Amino acid sequence: MQEATVAAPPVVALPNPPAAPVTVTAPPPVVAAAPTPQHTLVGILDLGDRSAAMFEVAGAVQSIALGKPIGSSGWLIAKIKQQEVTLKRGAETKVVLVGQKF
To answer: What distance in Å separates the CA atoms of residue 91 and residue 46, rounded to the nearest whole number?
Structure first.
C-alpha cells in the first residue's frame, strides 16, 4: 500500500494593517502674565478746567492734564475729581484713587 501525501496549504503572508493615524497636539501657547502695575496716582491738582493728575511714571512724578495719555500705557485721563481719576483706553474705563497703582 502506498501512502498518500497530502500537501499543506500554501502559507500566504497577509499585508500589515495600515498604521493608525497619529495626531500631534502642539502645547498651548505661553501667555504672558498681566503686566505689573507701573503707574501710581500720587495726587490731584484741582484747578477747575486746568485740573491735572500727578502720576508716578517710570520712577518720575508727572503732572498729566485731562485728555492726555499716561506714559505709554494707552490710558487717557477722562475725568478728574477730588481723590480719583477716571481713565479710558478704547472701550475700557477704570477709576483710580490717589495712592493706587494700575
So the answer is: 26
Q: By CB neighbour count within 10 A (0-12 exposed, 13-18 middle, 19+ buried), where does 87 fall?
A: buried
Query: Rounded CA gap, 96 and 84, in Å?
Result: 6
Helices (H), the chain: none
Distance CA 25, CA 37 (A): 35
Instruction: Give me the tens of pLDDT residue by residue for the chain, a chain 102 residues long.
Output: 566 666 666 776 767 777 777 777 777 787 766 666 689 999 999 888 899 999 998 889 999 999 999 988 899 999 999 899 999 999 999 999 999 998
